[in-house]
Known about the structure:
The structure is a single chain. The protein is mainly alpha-helical. The chain has two domains: 32-424, Ammonium transporter AmtB like domains (Ammonium transporter fold, Orthogonal Bundle), CATH 1.10.3430.10; 452-489, no CATH class. Helices cover 65% and strands 1% of the residues. Strands 1-2 form a two-stranded antiparallel ribbon. It is globular. The chain crosses the membrane at residues 37-58, 65-87, 128-147, 154-175, 187-211, 223-243, 286-304, 310-331, 343-365, 371-387, 399-428. Belongs to the ammonia transporter channel (TC 1.A.11.2) family. This is Ammonium transporter. Keywords: Ammonia transport, Membrane, Transmembrane, Transmembrane helix, Transport.
Amino acid sequence: MEKLLVPARAPAPLSLPSGLAFDEATPSWMSKADNAWQLTAATLVGLQSIPGLVILYGGGVKKKWAINSAFMAFYAFACVLFCWVSWGYRMSFGEELVPFWGKANVALDQQFLLDQAFLGKFPNATMVFFQSVFAAITLILIAGALLGRMNFYAWMMFVPLWLTFSYSFVAFSIWCPKGFLFKNGLIDYSGGFVIHLSAGVAGFTAAYWVGPRLAKDRERCPPNNIILMLAGAGLLWMGWTGFNGGDPYAASVDASLAVLNTHLCTATSLLTWLALDILYFGKASVIGAIQGMITGLVCITPAAGVVQGWAAIIMGLCSGSIPWFTMMVVHNKSKLLQKIDDTMAILHTHAIAGSLGGILTGLFAEPRLCYLFSGSYGQYVGLFYGFQMRQIHAGFRQIGIQFLGILYVMTINVIVTSIICLLIQFVVPLRMSDQDMEIGDEAVHGEEAYAIWGDGHRQDSSWYPNSGNPETELPVTKRKAAASEVEMT
Length: 489
């Protein structure tokens, strides 16, 4: 007879997350529609960074900086995700350590990831990914102010430090239900403060510490590929459907309104900027149109689902004109602003546009729409509706808390960014050497974006030994001559 094989001891029962049965892939608290939309929105936001900003930056700089600029964005996306699940998410949305900061902890425990998120009818795994792409794009926007001269190794250190000691502060304070600005009723629908104002101020501050590009690169810095810039800008614009549409944490009517307002404000802003360019410069600038698109996207972000359509149009008119004025007029007359080399004008397109959006949100936030978004009636009242509803105190309180949020975000980012830059200087230089900046990508990465000689092949660095050593490396002109001679033979 065959022997019956019996295990020596029975396996231990599986430990499942609370509320999740053994065979329950869709627990009772989860909405399949909301979860699907949240994952889609997160992917759309991720596409804004890679490839959106990767190719926007790669096409918007001189040819010699195409790879370095694109790779700064590519690296930041990967680094942020790793740091986010390791400690960043819990510091931004976890247990309170102090009123503006959470306790550091990993976000990879199975029970935690499969449990319901603190907001929304989907698991924490979805929320962790959704919030990670917002954190990533913030660092990538900061990179826009530093293109063309920051030491890449310094950038590699800057990303995790700034995420840990600046982004998590602001995100916890404004977005986490335990944060003090959240409790006080600050309206930041999808990141006008947390992302854009933070990135604009931090980028401008870091640009001060890093220093400027070479003088000739600042004086003449034509994009190497405007068509590529348009492609990146298009991904940025369409990706904003997930950026603002995902922040109700539900496939709701408020999400639909946020998406429509986003595109309406953006189109209005682009057209306004374009009209001003034509009126004052006599030409319809493609780069100007991209700038107007970005300021519109940024301005509507803190208000997307809590303002009516007519308000979105007014915000578009403001975002297409006020940042245009600060960039084209104020910047050119200010010696301080000209001294700091902000490569992609992040101060104007993100800090100023984000602040503008936050203030206009305090004016136009409609109480009923705020209730649809937050579930709290009476705490969020735009100033104009405060007059209309005879709740003037509530209206002034709202505009006051919006200004407080701007001041808080600016203060945190100036101080923390400065400290981080000063600390990094003790390890590696913040700025590349003048010799490396003369050459560009080939000196920094040993690679080039576009081949410009031969049969379309980039020159093989093995032709000159000790590549990267200025004492032994052949000059660029001799290298090209050597390559041509080899090709002829």
